[in-house]
Write a structure and sequence with these properties.
aa-tRNA-synth_I_CS, GluQ/Sye, ATP binding, Glu/Gln-tRNA-synth, Glutamyl-tRNA Synthetase, domain 3, 3-stranded antiparallel sheet, alpha/beta, 34% helix, 10 helices, EC 6.1.1.17, 3-stranded parallel sheet
Length: 312
């Protein structure tokens, strides 16, 4: 890490090591790096390996970014090595009376009537007010099927908001979100809040499909007595059908594009075009060109479409 970034706040990229990154993932990661460099923050990397993991994927992802000129300022944080920290955060919430067992399956939740004004998919509070006798009966029912209850946050179920550098005010109802799943895996919303605070992340840049999660995470940070970061939610990369880009859409990963003859200069030229900066100065050929060429105040908030090159 350079002296210039030592002790400052930080931004981060936190991919799941479930396979090769597609160009939309890479764009978000590069934007995280650019934003960190433009604002004098450290750029950190987190390996979110509590769920889907493909052997070798984490190292491959880091190697791709290294070839693109991006190296994290510190060794990556690995979530599977931090379960004690997540358990401690959960214990604090439990001590504050903010955790309860949930015995519902996904089907149960989907079929339950929604609470008034709650967004689609919000937890309806089925298990929130069960008596102890009802809870014990539900535990035994799950045990008979080799299952365990999930643990949920006893939220206030009100609208909370965050201010986003690109989207402005983002509001969402914070429902009784899962903190630890029935299989014992700590849930995403808890782990990211704990990890961001522990590593000094004071601004989160990520895809805007996660914008609605930001009020939840800010609320949870307040309950845990942790600082709330700033937010920058950038538009997604979509396929020709207007859906979120996926690996089934053709040659969309770095490795596939290189196999079809793309150079890094080609990749950065596409980044320049997709972000709306084509024609601004010279063509981007490196990540340093991105750092000097991006003006976040002028960045589009609409998604871009990636069309895989011919031959894919």
């Amino acid at each position: 890490m350079t002296e210039r970034h030592r002790g400052s706040g930080a931004g981060r990229f936190a991919p799941s090591p479930s396979g090769d990154l597609h160009i939309g993932n890479i764009r978000s990661g590069l934007l995280s790096y650019v934003r960190a460099r433009q604002t004098g923050r450290r750029f950190l990397w987190r390996i979110e390996d509590l769920d889907r993991v493909k052997t070798g994927a984490a190292d491959s992802q880091l190697q791709v970014f290294g070839e693109l000129g991006v190296v994290p300022d510190e060794a990556p944080l690995v979530q599977s090595e931090r379960t004690a920290e997540y358990a401690a955060a959960l214990a604090k919430l439990e001590a504050d009376g903010l955790v309860y067992e949930c015995y519902c399956s996904r089907k149960d939740i989907a079929q339950a009537p929604s609470a008034p004004h709650a967004p689609p998919g919000a937890y309806p509070g089925t298990c929130r007010r069960l008596g102890e006798e009802e809870r014990e009966s539900a535990r035994l029912r799950l045990e008979a099927n080799d299952r365990r209850p999930a643990l949920r946050l006893r939220a206030d179920n009100r609208v909370h908001s965050i201010d986003d550098a690109l989207l402005g005010r983002v509001e969402a109802v914070v429902d009784d979100l899962v903190l630890r799943r029935g299989d014992g895996v700590f849930a995403y919303n808890l782990t990211v809040v704990v990890d961001d605070a522990a590593t000094g992340i004071d601004e989160v840049l990520r895809g805007d499909d996660l914008a609605s999660s930001a009020p939840r995470q800010a609320y949870l940070a307040r309950l845990l007595g942790l600082p709330e970061p700033g937010w920058v939610h950038v538009p997604l990369v979509l396929n020709e059908g207007g859906q979120r880009l996926a690996k089934r859409d053709g040659a969309v990963t770095y490795q596939q594009l290189r196999g079809l003859g793309w150079t890094n200069a080609d990749l950065f030229a596409w980044m320049q075009q997709s972000l709306g900066f084509a024609g601004d100065g010279g063509p981007w050929r490196s990540v340093d060109d991105m750092v000097s060429g991006i003006d976040f105040a002028r960045t589009s908030t609409t998604p871009t479409v990636f069309i895989p090159p011919a031959g894919s």
